[in-house]
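Progress note, sequence design subtask.
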């Protein structure tokens, strides 16, 4: 059962087309039983006071600008077209994955992402159709923040960025490298670059509309914890940890059982 669960969780990660927060919310709901309204300080969020102020700024901007645009985009855009737009930007992200997979020494994942990039860019007509996934060619998405974690920067402080949203000090440090791996940066056409960037943001925001209903309690803490769990999940490549009951050599010891337990059960 544990192996099956890990396989399904990794499949969900591979198919994610939106920000890491999308997966994070799902993982958070499934595995976190703690209350989000607790007042205890979070060890990874020592700058919570500053982060909350930035969160309020982002939330107001989203509520009165980005969210209405995303709703309008979803309303006027047919589902197949919206899917193709998401596929297009996901295909561009394969370049970043290839580079970071190589930096992390993950040759197999780099090969898979290269294959996905070639297939979807050609047979998939510029990435509009995800033909590679239909061929069961899938890999783990990688970015420079994950690379820094593999290189040793495992723990990092949570940081809410203006406009960009949830991040960590480590992931923010990796943003310039990720931006340099974005093919849109090399179009030499400022108008097209801006248009594609805006479309990517709006498409991503539209993909998160339905998931807002999952948020409960303190929105700031919910999003923070969801993001941090999502990033840890991605850094571990979807590994959920070992389950001793799934090991073939797991055995019960006689000392684990007490005769008194059986006597009590019999007395009942």
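Output:
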């Amino acid at each position: 059962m544990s192996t099956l669960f890990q396989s399904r969780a990794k499949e969900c990660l591979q198919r994610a087309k939106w920000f890491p927060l999308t997966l994070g919310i799902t993982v958070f709901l499934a595995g976190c039983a703690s209350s989000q309204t607790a007042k205890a300080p979070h060890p990874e969020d020592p700058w919570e006071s500053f982060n909350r102020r930035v969160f309020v700024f982002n939330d107001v901007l989203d509520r009165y600008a980005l969210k209405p645009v995303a709703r309008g985009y979803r309303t006027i855009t047919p589902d197949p077209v919206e899917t193709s737009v998401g596929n297009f930007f996901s295909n561009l992200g394969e370049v970043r994955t290839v580079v970071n997979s190589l930096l992390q020494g993950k040759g197999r994942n780099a090969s898979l992402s290269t294959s996905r990039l070639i297939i979807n860019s050609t047979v998939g007509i510029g990435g509009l159709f995800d033909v590679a996934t239909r061929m069961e060619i899938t890999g783990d998405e990688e970015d420079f923040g994950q690379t820094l974690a593999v290189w040793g920067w495992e723990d990092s402080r949570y940081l809410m960025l203006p406009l960009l949203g949830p991040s960590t000090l480590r992931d923010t440090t990796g943003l310039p490298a990720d931006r340099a791996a974005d093919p849109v940066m090399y179009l030499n056409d400022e108008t097209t670059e801006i248009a594609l960037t805006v479309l990517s943001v709006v498409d991503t925001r539209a993909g998160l509309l339905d998931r807002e209903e999952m948020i409960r309690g303190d929105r700031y803490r919910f999003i923070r914890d969801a993001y941090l769990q999502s990033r840890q999940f991605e850094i571990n490549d979807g590994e959920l940890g070992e389950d001793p009951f799934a090991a073939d050599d797991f055995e019960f010891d006689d000392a684990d059982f007490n005769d008194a337990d059986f006597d009590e059960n019999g007395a009942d």
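Residues 1-38, 241-252 have pLDDT under 50 and may be disordered. Work on this subtask will continue into the next period as scheduled.
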